[in-house]
Description:
Blueprint: H1 3-24, H2 29-43, H3 50-64, H4 67-79, H5 84-98, H6 100-104, H7 106-115, H8 117-120
Helix pairs in contact: 1-4, 1-7, 3-4, 3-5, 4-7, 5-7
Amino acid sequence: MTIEHVEAMRRATxxxxxxxxxLSTTPYGSALSAWRRFTGTAHExxxxxxxxxxxxxxxxxIIKGCERCISYHVRSATAVGATADEMxxxxxxxxxxxxxxxxxxxxxxxxxxxxxxxxxx
Length: 121
């Protein structure tokens, strides 16, 4: 892993936040607000804990091939106590379901874990 990849993951998460901020000031801001309310409710602890839901989101993000999503959900999972090992295992679940394409995104997962490691400590 290079510092460039780690910085790219940090930037990806920051760019996603900036895009959401910009979108919120447009006429479509109400749609974004509705989506945020939905995702906030869906992420609340229930039968599954928030951490488990973030691990699922990591696997889904890998399967979808969304680097910004991987970085975002790694940061979120880290914030709710997920370990690097748990996130890597979630990544392998994605590989079970999606094979080689998911495995090809494993580097992104590892870079995101490194990029958001400071949240873990």
